[in-house]
Amino acid sequence: MSADARHRLLAWCRPGFEAECAQELSALDTRFGGGGYARAKPGEGFVEFVALDSDLAGRIAEAAGAERPVFARQLMHGIGRIEELPRKDRLSVLLPLIAGDERRWCDAWVESADSDAGRELSALCRALNGALIAGLKRQHAIDRDAHWRLHVALLSPTQALVCATDIHASAPWPGGIPRLRFPRGAPSRSTLKLEEALLVLLDEREREAWLQPGMRGVDLGAAPGGWTWQLVRRSIHVTAIDNGPMDAALMESGLVEHLRADGFRYQPPKPVDWLVCDMVEQPRRVAARMAEWLRQGWCRQAIFNLKLPMKKRYAEVQLCLDLLRDRVDGTLDLRARQLYHDREEITVFARRA
C-alpha cells in the first residue's frame, strides 16, 4: 500500500488525451504553489497526479469540482493504493483499508478506465461492486444521505486506487460517462453529442428553464439534422443552416426551416434563444464566430464543438476560450468538456450573464 495515496488524484479521461488532462491538473497545481507531477501513459484513459501533500491534493480536487476541467471526466481524491490485490479475496484487503477512513458513503463504484485494457476489467468491476457494497453495509459504512461517494479504480486485476468524491462536485455517472442509447428516428449519431452536452453542461434546473417549448434556435452546419433533432424533440423551432440536405422526416415536424446558406455569414433577422453548431472548421474560426453571435446578442446561449488540431491541443483550447472571454462584453458563463461522444474535439456551452 502506498504511503502517499492521499497525495494522489486520479482522473478518468478519453484515451489519447492523457497529456491534455495532465496539463490541466498541472495548471491547477501551479495555482496553489506547484510541486506536483502527473503520471500518464498514452492510451490508458487515466491520469494520476501526485501533489506535494494531501491538503494540496484536496484543494486541487475542490477547485476542479467547482470549475470542472475540460479533459477530466471524473476527478477523484485518493484514500489508499493497493499494489498486490489478491485475486481470490480482494475484499480482505479493500475493506480494512476503507474502514480506516471515518467517512460514510452514499454509494460505492468499482470502475476501470475507458480503454481497451480497462474494458477487459469491466466484468470483474461488476462482480466486485456488489460484494463491496454488501461488505460496506455490514460495516455500517453506507449512508444514503451522505455526500461522499467511494470509488475503487481498478488499474489492473491486482492494482487499485481507492478514492473519494463529493457528489455535489463530481459527475453522477460511473467513469464520468452518461450511457445514452441512440434515439429512434434521429438522423445521425451526432445527435448523441448534443444530448450528452445538455446533460453534462447544464443542470436539471437550467434544462427546465432554458429548453422550453416554443423557443427558437439556429443550427449552423445542421445537415442532416442530428443536433436539430434534439431541439425539435423539445418543441423548439429551428432554423437549420446548411447547403446540404436535411432529413426528410425531421422536416415533416413543421418545426424546422431549412436555409441553404453559409454558417459563417448567416445572421438571424431577430435574436433567438439557442445557437448550436457542429461545423467542421478550424477551432479559432468557430470560436470567433460564436463570440460574434454572443456579442451581437443574436442568441441568448450557445452550444458548439471545437475540432482540435493534432498537436498542442490543450494550448488551442485555452486560446479559444480566452478568445471568447475577450470578445464578449460583460460576464460570460463558459463551460467546456470533452464528452464521451466527442472525438478529436471539445463541446462548449456559453451564455451571457
Describe this structure as you would to a colleague.
The protein has 353 residues and is an alpha/beta fold. The chain folds into two domains: 5-176, 2-Layer Sandwich (VC0802-like), CATH 3.30.2130.30; 191-352, Rossmann fold. 33% of the residues lie in helices and 25% in strands. It is built from eleven helices and 14 strands. The chain has helices at 18-31, 54-67, 91-99, 116-119, 122-138, 191-201, 204-210, 226-232, 248-251, 283-296, 313-327; strands spanning 8-12, 37-39, 46-50, 74-82, 107-111, 148-156, 159-166, 216-220, 237-241, 256-259, 272-277, 299-307, 332-337, 345-352. The strands form two sheets. The chain has a seven-stranded mixed beta sheet. The chain has a seven-stranded mixed beta sheet with strand order 10-9-8-11-12-14-13, sandwiched between helices. α10 (283-296) links the parallel β11 and β12 (299-307). α6 packs across α8 (226-232) and α10 runs parallel beside α11 (313-327). The longest helix is centred in the middle third of the chain and has 17 residues, at 122-138. The termini are far apart. The model has no long low-confidence stretch (mean pLDDT 95).
Average pLDDT reading: 95
Order of helices and strands: EHEEHEHEHHEEHHEHEHEEHEHEE
CATH fold name of the largest domain: VC0802-like
Helix count equals 11
DSSP strand content: 15-25%
Radius of gyration: 22 Å
Helices and strands in order, then pairings?
Blueprint: E1 8-12, H1 18-31, E2 37-39, E3 46-50, H2 54-67, E4 74-82, H3 91-99, E5 107-111, H4 116-119, H5 122-138, E6 148-156, E7 159-166, H6 191-201, H7 204-210, E8 216-220, H8 226-232, E9 237-241, H9 248-251, E10 256-259, E11 272-277, H10 283-296, E12 299-307, H11 313-327, E13 332-337, E14 345-352
Parallel strand pairs: 5-6, 8-9, 8-11, 9-10, 11-12
Antiparallel strand pairs: 1-3, 1-4, 2-3, 4-7, 6-7, 12-14, 13-14
Helix pairs in contact: 6-8, 10-11
